[in-house]
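Give me the fold.
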Amino acid sequence: MTTPPEPPSPPDRSGAARRGRKLGPIAATVGSAHRSWLEPVRCAYLASGLTLSELSTRVTFAKSKISELLRGVGLYPRWEIVLLLAVELDMPSWPLYRLWRQAAFEAHKSSEWVERCTQGTTLTTTDDTPAPLDHQAFREMVEGDYLLYAQVFLDDDQRDTAVSDTFDILWLSWNDALASHDTRRFAWNVLRATVMTRTPHLDGRPELSRAAFDTVALQSLTNPADCMNQLTESLELFTAVSRLPAHQLDVMVLRRLCGFSPERVSALLGASLAAVRSNERHATRFLESVICPPPSEGNTP
């Protein structure tokens, strides 16, 4: 995912300046799956008002090791220590475990290693704690639309994983989502970042060639020559779409590929209806200028 920048550290809730050395940033080498659970844990730590020394005393784990874990340096952390931090920081363990486990596999950890890490923590790695009711209600309301958006960029398995990860990340950050200016916009940013990290990119732009093969116009043709012409046209269009700014790209995907009304797009993005229409208008003008440029001066139209 082009992962969004790490949020600024929230102010110390006690009103006093945080004591001890400031926590360093997440290492640039940390992958997107690892970052998906590490960022919420860091946010929970920074919001707690605890110093690394205090947290070290509470979880009986070396301060230097906690610092390494919170910066994503050193070896990929075992579940036992991640769980200790989650309990101390009052974070739900089930979504955290799912994200940690997935990142472990992406860090090339074996199934045996993952199982050894979870021995003795069976009760915390089962889906026995429901998400907050408002989180469940929000998921029921938008999950289908999120899947349609993700499917434009990803295959079925990656689509399902990206959307599932989105709701796990939201569960871990739900208080921040509720405290944000617009919960829908906060959630959409999480979804977009999660999808984009799994989407192949070319020259910094998301690859939409898979979507070009799935257009209704192409599927309705039977003549091979017509199919090739339509595919060439679709690839040209989707290459141009990939060059749009993020907001315009999302609006065009939802409007033209998912078939959503402007009102539905506005509600999903947490953006005003005027902003949605403006983004669509500017995107359409850009695409027309690329696909159907005006005739050069002196040429017959």
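The beta strands are 201-202, 205-206.
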